[in-house]
Request: fold
Amino acid sequence: MRRPIVAANWKLNGNRSMVSSLVAAVNKHAASAVSADVVICPPFPYLVESRALIDQGNAYLGAQNAAKETNGAYTGEVSAEMLAEIGCRFVIIGHSERRQYYGESDSIVAEKFVRVQEAGLIPIVCVGESLQQREQGKMEQTIISQIQAVIAKAGISNFNNAVVAYEPIWAIGTGETATPDQAQQVHALIRGEVAQQSESIASELRILYGGSVKADNAAELFAQTDIDGGLIGGASLDAAQFNAIVSAAG
Ligand code: PEP
Reply:
């Protein structure tokens, strides 16, 4: 039985007053999520402050990115070790916004996956196709090569301590959600790809859906066989919305 996860990706949003109200409200609600993990990923400057507010068993701190290097002359970067030291448990890597705006290739994402695990943290690795790739019939090929790049670098056995998030780019922040059937189809594709190398790891792998998940569509999505929770952007900035999504998961 896979335990659902609902992760809040604040992106480049928030301030200290939002940390104290939103993290506190989500942390409190997480205690009622008896069968789901809740991960809160605020921007870097708010991680330490957020950590101090997270004290419920089901709630964890996560970061939105980590460097592919461990230390050295990489101005502006933050290492996975640093994130571990301040109490993060999860790190989102390969979000489509990082791939698109910061040039993160499949191979960079794979390196980050390895670094995050070396630091003892759990990567939430994002994959997803653009609208153009979907319309050109290249969705499967895109997803498979994104997954395979990580498997090739990290090895299949390391997927036993990782989370995958399927986020169709055309559904992120657009209000246009994949239908439960569309999402299920891709989640099954991802699980099937992993199963080709290890059925046991595939059956335990938690695969989240992300892309305009809201309180009113979450339950339908999470009811699909291969959907194990969500990665939530916009709706994670509102405590009532996000907590309702957490309730829908577990
Ligand atoms: C995201 O950025 O991971 C995301 C899914 O955003 P939204 O929920 O706003 O579509």
In short: Residues 139-154 form the longest helix (16 residues). The mean pLDDT is 97. The pocket of phosphoenolpyruvate is lined by residues 9, 167, 172-173, 210-213, 231-235 (CB under 6 Å). Residues 208 and 227 are 6 Å apart (CA to CA).
